User: What shape does this take?
Amino acid sequence: MNNFSRKLARTVVAGALAAVAVAVATPAASAAARDGRCDNNEFCLYWGGGSSVTSLSDFAASLDNYGKTQPTCYEFKTPGLPGYGECIKNNAVKACNLRSRAVRVYFNSYHEGPYDTIPAESCHGLSITFLNNASHLFL
Assistant: This one.
């Protein structure tokens, strides 16, 4: 292999490695469920303790029972904000739906009883299930 061929081969290999490094380092555009951030394609519930900025809990799927007590409940996940670590059940006051389809928040577990419907791509205060919520269903 002559000098030019070796340089060309090294350049091609270096370019391929750089392309792989960029692909690996680029964050994915999809949601990372249960990380305390409300990302695209997620449904989020916000804690309701009277503060304007509160901890949230984010979901990528329906959930039929939030649970009542630690360590078996689903909790609010945003560290450093009011409500962090508290169980969601009967503590949510607002919902954001960053999905392309509606989501229902139910008063009771297993998607039963009265509900609030949160339209796609919107955020709303809960009215029917305000501080009385136990499950949600992706429609």
Remarks:
- The beta strands are 43-47, 56-59, 92-97, 103-108, 112-118, 122-125, 135-138.
- Helices lie at 3-25.
- The longest helix spans residues 3-25.
